[in-house]
Each structure stands twice: as structure tokens, then as C-alpha cells.
Amino acid sequence: MKIAISTLHCYNNHGGVIQARCLYRHLTEAGFDCELLDWRETRKRVRSVLLRMVARRPVLDGYLNDLRMSPRFLSRTSAGAADHANRQGGALVVGSDEVWKFNFIPGRPRAWLFPAVPNVYWGENVTVPRIAYAASAGTSAAEEVPEAERPRLAALLRGFRLISVRDRHTEGLVKALCPELNPVLLPDPAFAVPFMEDVDTSRIRARLGLAEKDRFFALAFDAAPPRVEIPTGWRAADLSRLDVDDWLAAIKISDHLVTDRMHAMIMGLLAGKTFELVNPRPKLRELADNFGLPTGPMDDARRNWPHEKIRGRIDEYRQRHRDFAAEMRRVLERTP
Predict the structure, then answer these.
(1) For residue 117, which of 150, 87, 81 has the smallest C-alpha distance?
(2) Three-class secondary structure of residue 232 per DSSP
(3) CB 3.0-4.6 Å disulfide test: which of 210, 240, 264, 297 passes with 220?
(4) Main-chain phi, psi angles of 215, to 5 degrees
């Protein structure tokens, strides 16, 4: 069964490429014939390239080169990408990541950052069956949607055969626009596969200038990390300029992780690491609450870290992804 996956895979963000790879792998292992829909919205793409140059970040897109990709659609609108999905047949899977962010309000910074709504992530111009897979709206809220736009977004949401969302905030958004819908809460697809087990750590200490005996903090931030108090005898490693493979390897061998990034947090959970969240956004706080993570000084948190509960919750999340993939198949097989 053919699946086109439409997600945020090309904007030079470690988490973006990791979640795209995990979703592709999960659905492929579930028996679907997957293709990544390569729409690169022009303004967001330009911003991504400029930020990469200014911050001297590595190019991350190559991490997905071995996945099957559609032709590239570098354009302001997603009509070409939608048309390609329609011609291929099968179904369109939207998600995960913050695919449902808005840019309705003039003068706000994100009017530049995100594609015009609606678009292919909402199913605009898509005629094949649509499924939302752990979709998120980020911090965008229903009250930001102009009254004139609400009927169109509501109609697009009602056109999805299945809707799963990554967080409670997005669940509230869907219900505000379509009170009759009951979206499934589904964790990020990075939980769907044993992703960190395959990470090669053989060269990362040398690349970070660390000796085998060095205990170190992995500082995983989108840009240069803030000042962090490092205990005596510890080292710190800034991961912001590493490519994806080295970024993952550094988290896997770290003794403690400090981050404000959701996918760094997820990789830390998968690798069994203790960590601290710096100025966590709501999606990180929600995830921390779901795992019952302690707060407070590092030493106390490390002593009270709920390793067993975390492993059990990861197993539960993985089963939820298997169940949702099975439900996808049932729904699509019933589709005329």
C-alpha cells in the first residue's frame, strides 16, 4: 500500500530530520510502501539556509538521502506536491512535527517562518485518503484563526480518515475547530522504533576531544548553549554544530544531557540518560510529566531518576504506534 509522507523534513533541524526518518522507518516496517513528499516552502527554506550560514551549522538534509523521495517542489504553495501525491495514488500521511502551525496574524514573526495555511499538511488539493500522524500545531491556537477561515480548516480536518495528534494543545485545537472529532493522542514517532540502538559511537569521543575517562554534559540546543554550571571534574560538549550521526552519538555516550529541544529529550529517554530541561516549552513539560521526571538539582535528579518507569512508558508508546499503524491499514483497506 503506497503512502506519501508530508512532514517538516528539510529545514536543518536535528529533530525534524530524525522524526521524519523514524516515521518513514516505522511505516515501512509496518508494511507500507513509503515515499517522502519533498515540498520545500520557499520562504521557510531561505530562512533555514540563512540561519545555517550565520550559525555555521552543518547541512542536515543528507541524513535522509537513502529514503525514497518524491521530486522536489521548491515553491510558495504546495499545489505541486499535492498533485504528485494524487497521481501516485495510495494515501497521504501528514506529520509528525509542527505541520499545523499558523501564520494568519499580520506582523507576527511566524508570518515569515511558516507556509501559508491551508496547505498540503492540511490536505489542501489532496484527493487521496488522508491520515494525520502525531501532527502538532506547536503553540498556534484556535483563537488565532479568522472567522472567515474556520469553515475551510474545519472541512479539511473532517476530510481526514484518521487523526492523531502529538500533544494536548493540538487536541484542543482540533476540537475547537471540529467539536465532533476525537483525535487520538500519539507520541512522537521517534518513540516508534528502537532508534538509538543502531547509533555508532566509535568515533565521537575523538571528535569532541574527550578522553575515555572524561565525564561530560551533552549540551543540545538549537544554537549556542546558555551558560551552564559544570560540576568539578566534568566536561561539557556543545552539540549544535554536529551532524545528525555525531549529535546522536554524543547523546548516547553522554553522562548527563542538558537541553531545551524536544527530540534531544526523546533521544535521551531512549538512551537511558538523565537530563535537565532549560526553559522548557509546554510540549517538553507535557512529555516530562508523562514520564514522571524529577526536577531540582542535578545530583538529586540523577539519584531519583525513574529508569524503570521510563522503559515501561517507552514500551507502551511503541505499542501505541504499532496499534495506530494497524488501524491505518484497516481504514485504508476499507476505502473504496
Answers:
(1) 150
(2) coil
(3) 264
(4) -95, 135
